[in-house]
Amino acid sequence: MRIGFRKPLLSTLLVLALAVSATPSTALAQPVSGISTTIYNEGTDVAAPFYNPVVVSNINLTLPQQSVDTLNNDPFTKVYQTANIRITTADGVITTLNNIGVRLKGQASRTNLYGKAPLKLKFDAFVKGQKFMGLTRMTLNSMIQDPSFIREDAAYRIYRAMGLVAPRTTYSWVTLNNADFGLYMNVESIDSQMLKRWLNPVHLYSSDCYLADLTYYQRDCFDTNYGDNDRTNFNAAVAVSVLDGATWWTEVNKVAHMDQIINLMATDLYTSNWDGYTDVVQNNYYIVFDDTGKLRIIPWGQDQAFPMQEDAQLDFLGRGPAFRDFGNQERSVMLRKCVAYAPCQSQLVKAQVAVKDKVATLNIPGFKNKVASVINNAYISKETRSNPDVSSAAYWQNWLDQFFPMRTAALTAFLNTRNPEAPALSMNGPSTIGSTLVAEASTWDYTATLSYQWLRNGQSISNATGTSYVTTLADANTLISVRVRANKTSKTPATSTSIAVLVNNPRLPSASLTGEARVGVPLVGGPLADSTATVTYKWFIDGSAISGATGSTYTPLPEDNKKSISLLTTVTQIGYTVAVSSSPAKIVESGIIAKPTVSVLGTAKTGSKLSAQVAVTAPNSASYQWLRNGKAISGGTKSTYTLTSADYKTSIALRVTLSRVGYENAVTTSNAVKVTLGELLKTSEPVLSGTPRVNSTITARIGSWDSGVKLSYQWLRDGVNIPNATRTSYRLTIKDRKAELTLRVRATKTGFETVTIDSRTVIGR
């Protein structure tokens, strides 16, 4: 037998004059808003663009007379009746589905089809697999109990922001059998499809009574909406209701996601949703169990959130008389158990502060204004079955501008009545003398202030009251911690003390050498001095002290090359005797000269001069060696080199060696260049002398030519070679009378271009 209250039918308040008929209405269906925006879209599923509260769709329902009669005669039937639907989305896309299921919904708001009936649609009720934008169900809330037309939009947005499973919303203008039913809140249905966006559901239950709670007395008030009939997890959750205190807290965390439950109760209380799970009504919610076997509570029906009545604005711990003196005035079992157990109560109050912060982030007043700009004049003013007064709607909408500051002020006043809670605290930093320790403290209670005190062996350190502390010599070998207090006027402070750390004063080590012992490279000696110790240094080469070398570093000189270097240190440290030690010795290696960049300038032709391009800085010195096909050229040891015949068709490169006393030589070879033909510089024109007469001899003066040149001669008669006339002189014959005589000189030299020069022509006589 059920022990509970069935939700009453208040149809006498809701029956209006307009009856549903099959004849067209004189009212015109409202157009879609035409707004295209993604500003409030949530989710990545196909229906995400549909569930946007600043766009409006049209829903045209057609019901046969039999369906109309059944729903009017039995408004509480859960049997879906047949209907057809045409949905026009905000972007103008029209979808028609035939033979869907329709039934009435609600309890206090439920009416028959003579009023503005809240509706449930099931697209696949009679046609398997039939969907709209991936949805199988749709819930249309009439908002006749929400004069603002906006409470559910705003409330569900807050629940979702708190990480809770909660439906999305949009608006639809509904027409039924050509009669305008008006603007509806189109709420995402709580079914397996919706739940799978959040979790892996196993069972879903809906409350079917007022005062439906997870107790033995009310366990029959829950219908199974999804999953099989195995109620093992449900019964386990009910069994916890008889426990109290720490035992309840341990067991309830096994059967419920208490972080989620606490966030839901905190949101219920902050938004003063007296008609939800948390307050005395225990109404309008679902229970879902996921694949871990733990439950969550899903809010459903938010048209009573943000009440204007002062006595409906809930106490933050669920104290005081119930709004309207409802029922037995007991708050939900989860709230009662939670506020009675201090750790849970603390989490609940902390969650309410988080709700306040989320509301500020969401800018609900700004959100409300955007929605109002879409629905007020274009839709609410055209209502015929609920309040069409836009001024009245705006009045209730603008109440949100006052509600949230009022609730924050109430929360602040509530927090000021509570003792502060110990802040979260950690201390970070190295625990050596002279280091900085940092306290990182925080509290969610924004009405509390934090103060700091650093402790040495548990005793306060004078003037150490900041968020950080630099350890001193006085802290050596002591325990350092920090105490942070959360303070409120006239309240007992709450204190947290960090884990203490032992401040070390370790003895400095013996002398040491760090780094490579090499000429020109700084060598670092150790140990280094700190706030607790002084160190003196003395450097030695081959056992002899180096004059002036008394710092912690020393750079070996060229004269130190191949010698032994060591360091003597004297450490004077608080708490220890003076320590003198010598480091292990190292052999100083030769220094390293950076390899130079070498290139060859000049034209690579025989007879041309090549020169080295290389940077040589003092005290380095450079030596040069020119290379022919990788082998040294005898005598080629200067920075310039003149190419000879021997270099023709070979590769010439330059090797440069930088040297310096105490350093390893640095050798670099340039890129090789290929030697091509040169040009002769001295090329003289032969000059003829003598009388060019038959039986007379003419002779040529050859002039000066490059050394090593081989010359050959050829006399020409009228441009044709004269046989055997290959000397510098020529005796004319009868054939030369009146002929043009010329001497051609041909010069050759290996690696150079061949040159041919003709003398001036003479006429034989």
Total number of helical segments? Answer: 10
Report Rg. Answer: 52 Å
Uncertain regions spanning at least 5 consecutive residues: 1-29
Q: What's the multimeric state?
A: single chain
The rounded distance between the terminal residues' Cα atoms is 158 Å
Shape from CA axes?
A: elongated
The average pLDDT score comes to 91
Assign a percent range to the helix content.
Answer: 10-25%
Question: What is the structural class?
Answer: alpha+beta
Give a count of the beta strands, DSSP E runs of length 2 or more: 45
Beta strand %: 25-35%
Question: How is the main sheet built?
Answer: 7 strands, mixed, barrel
> Biggest sheet: strands side by side, in what order?
1-2-3-4-5-7-6
Topology, pairings included?
Elements: E1 56-62, H1 65-73, E2 81-88, E3 94-104, E4 119-122, E5 137-141, H2 151-161, E6 169-176, E7 179-187, H3 192-195, E8 201-207, E9 222-226, H4 232-239, H5 245-255, H6 258-270, E10 285-290, E11 295-299, H7 333-339, H8 342-362, H9 364-375, H10 390-416, E12 424-428, E13 436-442, E14 449-456, E15 459-460, E16 468-470, E17 479-487, E18 494-497, E19 501-502, E20 512-514, E21 523-526, E22 533-541, E23 544-545, E24 553-554, E25 564-573, E26 579-582, E27 586-587, E28 591-592, E29 599-601, E30 609-613, E31 621-628, E32 631-632, E33 640-642, E34 651-659, E35 663-664, E36 666-669, E37 673-674, E38 687-689, E39 697-701, E40 710-717, E41 720-721, E42 729-731, E43 740-748, E44 755-758, E45 762-763
Parallel strand pairs: 1-6, 28-35
Antiparallel strand pairs: 1-2, 2-3, 3-4, 4-5, 5-7, 6-7, 8-9, 8-10, 10-11, 12-13, 13-16, 14-15, 14-17, 17-18, 17-19, 20-21, 21-24, 22-23, 22-25, 25-26, 25-27, 29-30, 30-33, 31-32, 31-34, 34-36, 34-37, 38-39, 39-42, 40-41, 40-43, 43-44, 43-45
Helix pairs in contact: 6-8, 8-10, 9-10
